[in-house]
Amino acid sequence: MTDTTPDRPQRRPRQEQITPDTAGEKAIGPYPPTEEMLAEPVPEELRRAQENRLREVWKEPQGWRYISAVNNSEVGKWYSLTAFGFMLLAGVLALVMRVQLAVPGAEVLDADRYNQFFTMHGSAMMFLFAVPMFEAISILILPAFLGARDMPFPRLSAYGFWCFVIGGVFVMGSLLFDAAPSSGWFMYPPLSTKQGGIGADIWLLGLSFIEVASIAAAVELIVGVLKCRPPGMRVNLMPLYAWYVLVVGGMILFAFPPLIAGDLLFELERGFDWPFFDPDRGGDPMLWQHLFWIFGHPEVYIIFLPSIAIAAMVVPTAARRPIVGYSWIVLSAVGTGFLSFGLWVHHMFATGLPSISLGFFSAASEAVVIPTGIQLFAFVATLMVGKVRMNLPMLWIAGALAIFTAGGLTGIMVALAPFDWQVHDTYFIVAHLHYTLFGGMVLPVIGGVYYFYPFFTKKKMSDRLGRWSFWLTFTGFNITFLPMHLTGLYGMPRRVYTYPGGLGWEPLNMLSTLGAFVLAAGILVFAWDLLRPKGRQPLTERNPWGGGTLEWSHEVPEEKWGVRSIPHITSRYPLWDQPKLVERMDAGRYYLPDSDEGHRETLVTSVIDARPLQILRVTGPAWITMWAAAFTGGAFIFPTFSMYTPAIVCAAFAIVCVCYWLWTSTALIPARERKDAGLGLSLPTYVAGPQAVGWWGMWITMLGDATAFASLVFGVFFYWTAGSDFPPENALHADWRYVLLACALMLTAWAGMLLGRTRNRKGESGAAPILIGAALAAACGIAALIAAVIEMSPTSHVYPAMMCALVVWCVAHIGGGIIMLAYCAAALIFGRATPTHDAPLWNVSLYWHFMAAMVVTVTLCLAILPRLV
Amino acid sequence: MAEKGQLSREFAEEQSSLWRIAFAPTVWAVHFVACYATAAVACAKFPEAELAHVGVWRVAISAGTLVALALIAWIGWRAWRHWDYLDDHDYSHGRDDNESRHEFLGHAGFLLAVVSFIGVLATWLPAFLIEGCT
Amino acid sequence: MTSATGRRFLCLAAVLLVAGCEGGPQSALAPAGRDASDLARLFWIMLAGAVVLWIALNGLFLFVTRIRPGALSRGWAEGIIIGGGIALPLVVLTALLVYALPLMPAQRAPGDGLTVRVTGEQWWWRVEYRPEGAEDWVTSANEIRLPVGQRTEIELTSGEVIHSFWIPALGGKTDMFPGRTTRMTLLPEEAGIFRGQCAEFCGLSHALMALNAVALEPAEFEAWLAAEAGPATLPRGEGAALFAREGCGACHSVRGTDWAGQVGPDLTHFGSRTSLAAGTLPLTREALVGWIADPGAVKPGAEMPSYGHMTTDELATLSDWLMGLQ
């Protein structure tokens, strides 16, 4: 199917020739390819030989070794099925709660178990389903949208997945031992800090662990979008899904770290009695609420945007024309990403903050309607100008729109602080949030599964079952949640395990319970359709819906290599606008048609215009990622039971595993400096510094890390504004001499890192000893920093506690920096890095730039600011 | 990447231009945080402030708003020139050339400036409508 | 569908159809106070707008996907994005903000004189009254009485964990924090008994932390407060001895006696209240006997120990005596 728009004349850019003398790490050869070059046929014999080699390289491990696979198609599949499994479990919890609430005074669940259930329902839906589902689906389909062979860091995806499985099973498993967290998914202290048992610790550590996995996935996805696009896919031609992934990945980087910082403070209070949230010792439970909701509100959009992204792929296919208002949708994605960070206090409208402060957040909460509205109207506009074919995925999208708009409109209501004073923490909110999440996430994702299922498995799901599932889900949902608006207005609060009769709530609750079972039936029909064996069913055609984007170019039956050759793209809908594209891809006419060295490879391109830059060797199947995940799991899970020694041992082993993994498989010095990428283009195989994917991965990770650190600094500022005794009078401050000494030593280490890198680049000797010296200076810096606060007693008051928390953070990071310095020194000594192959040194010096900024900030907070107040 | 042989240096691959579309929302974010922090500090540290004090920080917020609006307007104006709509009335930017990419980033930047402008005005509205810290 | 559920369904349909459906004594849609009626009005206005907008948007979607005569022009489509995505929300939201934001300071306007301090405990309410100009607080518990037609200052704090104070028929809610005082004000406009409930999850028996708000005509309120401020009038009977024997006074106060415990609710005028165990049980002798015998059975996690070792007669006697504390 084709659709050509009249306002899009095809203009060919002039080709440039890059000559070897200007090359260096650059591409040599003609780019972009001309029509003549592309029209030249590939000899049949060569083609078959290439196919065989590629098939061999991308083959999955067989038998029980299958689980060591790291391919995005496998990891993505496991990831999404696991997340779906957790969703079903969390849904069962909801059903049991609905049974308990069907009539007043029921005794199906006792108070404690009900509290565990609602806590786990919320936590699992958020942390084990909604966010991981985005990551899973993106890992699964993003490389295909981008015509890439795989994600840039396949082992990182696998590591993230195994972390997720271990953490998820640990957290959900606690339900079986009646030990699950029971203070709500928001874990407000002091209720949660004062609570006995290990429930709160399970929540904190288990979910922190999963947050780490989420950040890993975000890093991977952002780098994937920025650096692994096919040649020619400039930023203005990216599929909208990729834009959303970019925005959502960025949001994860800025939203999750505050929660991780909060978790650190929380666990320091629970484990070591540092009084961050204890008002008797200067602490303040409001800090947790701020940190939690700075995470919690963007989280809602982190869930919502990727699902809208799915809709942005389904709608043009249904309308059979390109999306209208591409720039508008990019605006709305980026705009929503930003504005969603200005909404967090709307979860805290009832906390008695000044009206003016609430007003800011009311206004921002209303302003976010504008980008969201633009988004929806762009879809409507696309459907208006197209010739719509209502397929099954589109039915789910339409249902999602009906539900989401209702949730959005109640969102406008609750964003007004005074109205929220009535409905906050009532069933009105329960209704509102389920309307936004079902309409904004569950229904579009199911629609997306129907849409992409032929791509995942080369089989189709049942149209009939799909319609049954839709109508059951849709009606069940509305029967369940529409009455809840009224239940809330009639005064029923959330999170109550029982309620008295006579308040007008009985018929509404009974109705909700009945609806919940209809809804569950709809989800079950979907689950059956998804999982039922389809062995005898015929394979689908290659592009069953007539889509225009690259994922529909994948071969039927499935080939593990992703794309046979990486195409040169000149349109947003290449399958519609580039007539011979698929044929030429299959023939291996485009880039990277071969794997002559037997390595898994993908193409790295430039950020803005997607010019080919490098042939990146990507990692293959491995067990080390599983070991790393298992030990990381140990490091998070043992502290739950206050077993700190095994935790430290596990953390050490996790570090060893990660070092081994990096040492053996990343930034390997290639046998050949350049390789032929096809179409006469010769590309470097090793790139260091700001053009390398590893460097981007480090940069993005450190942005997230810096956000977590900023959250701790925000904590210092918060305590200063919120209380009159921060710092308390006559408080013992950190010893400023030691702090300044520590600062000087750590900055010396930073300078040493830079000096070492520069000397190595120039081919001068002595780089390794300089790096070792830098590591020693950093180690002395750690000692000095600890000496500065050793006299302070963090359990006595929140001021010393906060100062010590900054030191803990700083020491852990400098410790990481020392390990990295040692790694670089070892790489130089053992020839894993050379003057021309110095990627690790660039990445580690980037890390140390962040360390330098952190150390200076810590010095200010520790030694200087408290003396000025 | 060599930029030699390009039709126009203006359309050269802009390393910074992806960041540039985020400038206007960043101004919104800074303005938002500044308003919130000003109000929080004013209400927490000067709770018994006389109306004069209250007036002072509301004026400060309004002044900050003007600065933010001016900045966003300037960013928007630059993005508008970048987009260069009146040149060819192109608003779909779907072509595979440097100009299309360049104008797309200008277009997106312009639209984000519009939304950020509205966002800043919305943030200012409470400071206009609500007096005092109650 | 069974006939019982069928009837329930019909009931609900009827409830939903009848305009102005108000709900029970804990309903925000049956306002009896100035703030609640302002917010109820705001709700009805927004609901009307929301219904119109929902129908318009989904109608448009239905139109373009199902009933449309032919493809529309691109200019129209772009106009839809600007009109629907920017212009419409801009107008609607600005109007809403201008109307609703000034409600906030109005709802927190200073009180007319009387201050009521409510402290959230797990899971009951410590309530203290201080009329204008008075020095001392009058202590009570688990029920709040307010004069009609006057704005009362409500000072909120908490003992251990966060709670939230909420009487839907009178106004919105405000959280109660340990170590921090928050405030709100309420202006009842009708006399009556309205139910309120803790709205912030506060642990095991969060569901069972309610209270009645009794709005009284000003004169009646003055009389009640004067009586409430006085010491208890101890009823005759064995109850007092049982109360002493079981050590109840270690936790509970009865003003005018030596029993001055501060851990549990004040019992000075216990018998005059409208509910038992923080809005969980009716104040009847039978309920009180059950409560004293095993508080944990009624309210999981309650700190009050079980007095199941007392004989039935003793429990009855003690209950009668407590009910007599008018």
Automatic annotation (TrEMBL), chain A:
Keywords assigned: Cell membrane, Copper, Electron transport, Heme, Iron, Membrane, Metal-binding, Respiratory chain, Translocase, Transmembrane, Transmembrane helix, Transport
One annotated GO molecular function: heme binding
PANTHER family: CYTOCHROME BO(3) UBIQUINOL OXIDASE SUBUNIT 1, CYTOCHROME C OXIDASE SUBUNIT 1
GO biological process: electron transport coupled proton transport; oxidative phosphorylation; respiratory electron transport chain
Residues covered by the Cytochrome oxidase subunit I profile domain: 52-570
Pathway: Energy metabolism; oxidative phosphorylation
Pfam families associated with the record: COX1
EC number in record: 7.1.1.9
UniProt xrefs under InterPro entries: Cyt_c_oxase-like_su1_dom, Cyt_c_oxase-like_su1_sf, Cyt_C_Oxase_1, Cyt_c_Oxase_su1_BS, Cyt_c_oxidase_su1_bac, Cyt_c_oxidase_su3-like_sf, Cyt_c_oxidase_su3_a-hlx
Feature: compositional bias, Basic and acidic residues: 1-15
PROSITE patterns linked to this entry: COX1 (PS50855), COX1_CUB (PS00077)
Region (Disordered): 1-40
Record protein name field: cytochrome-c oxidase
Entry's transmembrane regions: 78-103, 123-146, 158-182, 202-226, 238-260, 300-319, 326-346, 358-383, 395-417, 437-456, 468-490, 510-531, 620-638, 644-663, 708-726, 738-755, 767-790, 802-830, 846-865
Family per similarity comment: Belongs to the heme-copper respiratory oxidase family.
Protein's cellular compartments: Cell membrane
Membrane topology label: Multi-pass membrane protein
Enzyme class: translocase
GO CC annotation terms, alphabetical: plasma membrane
Catalytic activity: 4 Fe(II)-[cytochrome c] + O2 + 8 H(+)(in) = 4 Fe(III)-[cytochrome c] + 2 H2O + 4 H(+)(out)
TrEMBL record, chain B:
Protein name as it appears in the record: Transmembrane protein
Keywords of the record: Membrane, Transmembrane, Transmembrane helix
Top-rank taxon: Bacteria
Transmembrane residue ranges: 20-44, 56-77, 104-130
TrEMBL record, chain C:
Catalytic activity: 4 Fe(II)-[cytochrome c] + O2 + 8 H(+)(in) = 4 Fe(III)-[cytochrome c] + 2 H2O + 4 H(+)(out)
Domain Cytochrome oxidase subunit II copper A binding: 111-227
Domain Cytochrome c: 234-326
GO cellular component: membrane
Gene3D superfamilies: Cupredoxins - blue copper proteins
Principal place of residence: membrane
Pfam families tied to this protein: COX2, Cytochrom_C
GO biological process, alphabetically ordered: ATP synthesis coupled electron transport
Gene Ontology terms, MF aspect: copper ion binding; cytochrome-c oxidase activity; heme binding
Compartments where located: Membrane
Family: Belongs to the cytochrome c oxidase subunit 2 family.
Name of this protein: Cytochrome c oxidase subunit 2
Organism: Wenxinia saemankumensis
